[in-house]
Amino acid sequence: MKALLMPAAQRPALLYFIAAFASGCVLAMMTHLNAVMSFYSNAMFASWTAHATGTVVSIALLGLLGLRKRAGAVEAKPSIPWWAYLGGVFGAATVVCAALAVNSPLALSGAIAIGLASQVLFSLAADYWGFFGLPARRLDRRDLVVVALILAGGLLVIMAGATA
């Protein structure tokens, strides 16, 4: 049992779990709203609208929060890796793909279930090979069990939705 527990110094604070949970809820809402936009227009327009709206909100928040460098507080940061700029490309692809999937027989729950499974699979691959600057780590049986359970749960969600 001891091997399953993480040392106290490495355990994330409760705030991070709450933030991750909220992120998942917001992601499901975003996916649905973008799919509604896509239903009434098309997936590309939904993606463009989502990112344009996000840009406006981000600029407004930056203005409100006044994120400027304070005098005397010079912080040296390394330059941004070129691949970090790909986040927007993947974000646009996510909106388009999710809008198409939600407006299919998969519906919102099926699209989210498959999306969750693919996120976990890619995350494990990224951890294993150290993609995008992540420290590489060995995977173990627990990782495979987690993937199997998520895939099984996703299939149950999809099959239950098909019979409804």
Automatic annotation (TrEMBL):
Pfam family membership, one: DMT_YdcZ
Gene Ontology cellular component terms for the protein in this record: plasma membrane
UniProt xrefs under InterPro entries: YdcZ
Keyword Transmembrane helix: yes
Residues that span the membrane, as ranges: 12-33, 45-67, 79-102, 108-132, 144-162
Alphabetically ordered keywords of this record: Membrane, Transmembrane, Transmembrane helix
Protein name: DMT family transporter
Organism of this sequence: Martelella mediterranea DSM 17316
